[in-house]
């Protein structure tokens, strides 16, 4: 029975699939979870929380937003688990299906050798592996492009007209769904349109019409979203009109890299210099071989088309699928990124597979071909290993938003625990709000306009969490509770620290300064007090902390940027030294917030012993003006308040 079962199992395909799975799931927790990867996940979480259904997603480099389907698809695994690993497993698993789909297309429309060669290259190509492990909006483009190709190849290759029509409708719907994940994927409609032109006599008219109508209907929600966001759409069109168009071969180069993995070592692993030269050399030779195989595959495809040999229709569609997107992106106004070449998947692998199959018919080339396959898998695996090792050796790159999931996922769990314990609703860190939501699994407000050493926001009546990556904190954090830390092991050797400012009433906020004041300014701020040493020596750097309460929001705040200034003066008001603290742009001010600003002030070394004061106020560099102090009647009367005194004593005298 076991022998019979084994004969029914396609062992070569299983081996290739196992290899592809190993490459795609190895070091699974080393994905750098940046904004691009987090945004669809955050949108999905907000949908699951009942915050509506988005019609648009993350903005593209050409200013137009992407369609939102990737967020809807990620909501499926997130409905079962809010872990950021859930959508990553989901996306990587779907993209793994590219390998058996490539095999099926090769086997169905060409032969078994084409199927094995094409699926092996698709399974091991490092660029395809890299793009198959990402949760960004275009993360499922390999899956949708391959699924669309599989269905449309069946539409032109099936002998029964009824089945051709069903395949066509399904293929156009799959293609349209793929286009709803990534704006550039609309380019696949060009491929489908050319297919209909070349095969219009072969395709049932009713099915063709039904397929295009279905595809168009799927695009309607995105179109509605663009119309609603007319200002962004107009801006994008204007941006496009001003761009300078150019013609180059960048798109073809990226399409070839997606097949053979060329320059993956240079782009992703250049820091590993010990074997970089060897890997670059092997990549170079591999690239030349694959260019030859691609050319040979194109030759055999054209021959089949011209002679109307078996599979000629599939050969034509595969050539269209590869070269139409390349031609579309050859004339372009903006840089062509490597992932744009995903529009050519899976055609490049099938064309190369045809080239390999043709050579495999030559008896004395079988051994070299098998050896070449082993070398290709080896160099691809080595490059991927070096890529993973590079992330391990540089886990944070100095920023929270570059942390791989190995560390950012536990950070998200810690944030969730602290939020639950303190009732936190807003988090201050360098994480974008989408990253914060995706990692914590819930909607939280994120604020990035702060400096832990110089400008800290303490909300009125709300708890605030600060998440810092080995950053120096200022005196304001004496009013916070430290909620532990997470260590990033060497070579990073940093710590992620968590501080909570508990919810405080206005009366409690007023009591935070050691020296209290009640001074209102015409920009809506009220100075509640300050912290200032009572004595210092010449040459010292004073740290002055002032407490500014946002009493009201000024109508012109969107053009304002106020920060405190500190002037050291003597008894006659002569200015001796100048310092200042941090601030925030007016569009980020919120009524009820307390801004704790700490800034340095240098005591001149030549300063004589005596009693001195600090003149403090608020300065807006945008308008080049000081905020005015208001009297009890609301009339401005001065632009600075005197703090102190402070005793300066020269210890060397």
Give the SSE layout.
Blueprint: H1 2-8, H2 11-25, H3 35-48, H4 69-78, H5 85-96, H6 98-109, H7 112-124, H8 126-131, H9 141-157, H10 161-179, H11 188-198, H12 205-228, H13 230-242, E1 246-247, H14 250-260, H15 264-268, H16 276-306, H17 312-330, E2 331-332, H18 347-360, H19 366-393, H20 405-422, E3 426-428, H21 433-440, E4 445-447, E5 455-459, E6 464-469, E7 481-487, E8 495-501, H22 506-510, E9 515-520, E10 525-531, E11 535-536, E12 541-550, E13 561-569, E14 575-580, E15 584-585, E16 593-602, E17 610-620, E18 625-626, E19 629-630, E20 636-638, E21 641-648
Parallel strand pairs: 3-4, 3-6, 11-21
Antiparallel strand pairs: 1-2, 5-16, 6-8, 7-8, 9-10, 10-12, 12-16, 13-14, 13-15, 13-17, 17-18, 17-21, 19-20
């Amino acid at each position: 029975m076991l022998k019979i079962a084994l004969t029914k199992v396609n062992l070569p395909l299983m081996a290739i699939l196992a290899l592809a799975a190993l490459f795609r799931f190895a070091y699974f927790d080393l994905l750098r979870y940046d904004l691009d990867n987090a945004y669809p996940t955050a949108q999905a979480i907000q949908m699951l929380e009942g915050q509506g259904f988005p019609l648009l997603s993350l903005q593209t480099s050409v200013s137009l937003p992407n369609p939102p389907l990737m967020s809807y698809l990620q909501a499926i695994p997130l409905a079962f688990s809010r872990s950021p690993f859930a959508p990553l497993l989901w996306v990587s698993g779907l993209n793994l299906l590219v390998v058996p789909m490539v095999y099926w297309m090769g086997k169905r429309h060409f032969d078994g050798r084409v199927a094995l060669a094409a699926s092996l290259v698709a399974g091991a190509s490092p660029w395809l592996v890299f793009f198959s492990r990402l949760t960004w909006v275009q993360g499922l483009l390999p899956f949708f492009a391959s699924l669309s190709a599989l269905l449309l190849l069946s539409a032109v290759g099936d002998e029964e007209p009824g089945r051709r029509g069903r395949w066509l409708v399904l293929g156009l719907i799959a293609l349209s769904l793929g286009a709803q994940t990534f704006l550039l994927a609309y380019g696949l409609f060009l491929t489908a349109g050319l297919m209909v032109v070349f095969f219009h006599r072969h395709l049932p008219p009713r099915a063709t019409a039904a397929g295009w109508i279905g595809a168009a209907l799927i695009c309607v929600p995105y179109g509605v979203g663009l119309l609603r966001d007319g200002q962004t759409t107009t801006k994008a069109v204007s941006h496009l009109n001003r761009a300078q168009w150019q013609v180059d071969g960048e798109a073809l180069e990226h399409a070839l890299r997606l097949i053979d993995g060329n320059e993956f070592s240079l782009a992703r692993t250049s820091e590993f210099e010990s074997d970089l030269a060897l890997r670059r050399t092997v990549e170079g030779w591999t690239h030349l071989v694959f260019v030859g195989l691609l050319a040979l595959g194109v030759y055999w495809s054209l021959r089949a088309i011209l002679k109307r040999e078996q599979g000629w229709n599939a050969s034509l569609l595969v050539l269209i699928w590869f070269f139409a997107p390349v031609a579309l992106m050859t004339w372009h106004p903006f840089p062509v990124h490597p992932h744009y070449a995903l529009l050519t998947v899976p055609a490049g692998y099938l064309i190369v597979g045809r080239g390999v199959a043709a050579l495999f018919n030559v008896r004395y080339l079988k051994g070299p071909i098998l050896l070449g396959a082993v070398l290709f898998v080896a160099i691809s695996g080595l490059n991927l290993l070096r890529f993973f090792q590079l992330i391990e050796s540089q886990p944070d790159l100095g920023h929270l938003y570059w942390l791989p999931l190995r560390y950012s996922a536990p950070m998200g769990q810690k944030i969730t625990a602290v939020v639950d314990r303190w009732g936190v609703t807003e988090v201050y860190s360098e994480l974008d709000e989408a990253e914060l939501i995706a990692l914590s699994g819930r909607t939280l407000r994120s604020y990035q306009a702060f400096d832990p050493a110089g400008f800290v926001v303490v909300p009125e009546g709300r708890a605030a969490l600060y998440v810092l990556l080995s950053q120096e904190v200022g005196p304001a954090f004496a009013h916070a509770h430290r909620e532990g830390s997470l260590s990033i092991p060497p070579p990073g050797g940093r710590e992620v620290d968590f501080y909570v400012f508990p919810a405080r009433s206005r009366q409690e906020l007023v009591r935070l300064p050691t020296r209290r004041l009640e001074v209102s300014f015409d920009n809506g701020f009220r100075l509640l007090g300050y912290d200032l040493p009572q004595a210092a020596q010449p040459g010292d750097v004073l740290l002055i902390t002032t407490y500014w309460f946002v009493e009201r929001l000024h109508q012109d705040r969107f053009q304002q940027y106020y920060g405190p200034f500190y002037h050291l003066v003597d008894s006659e008001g002569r200015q001796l030294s100048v310092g200042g603290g941090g601030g925030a742009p007016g569009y980020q001010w919120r009524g009820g917030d307390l801004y704790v600003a700490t800034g340095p002030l240098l005591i001149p070394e030549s300063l004589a012993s005596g009693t001195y004061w600090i003149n403090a106020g608020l300065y807006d560099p945008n308008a080049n003006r000081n905020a005015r102090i208001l009297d009890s009647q609301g009339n401005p009367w001065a632009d600075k308040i005197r703090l102190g005194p402070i005793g300066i004593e020269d210890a060397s005298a």
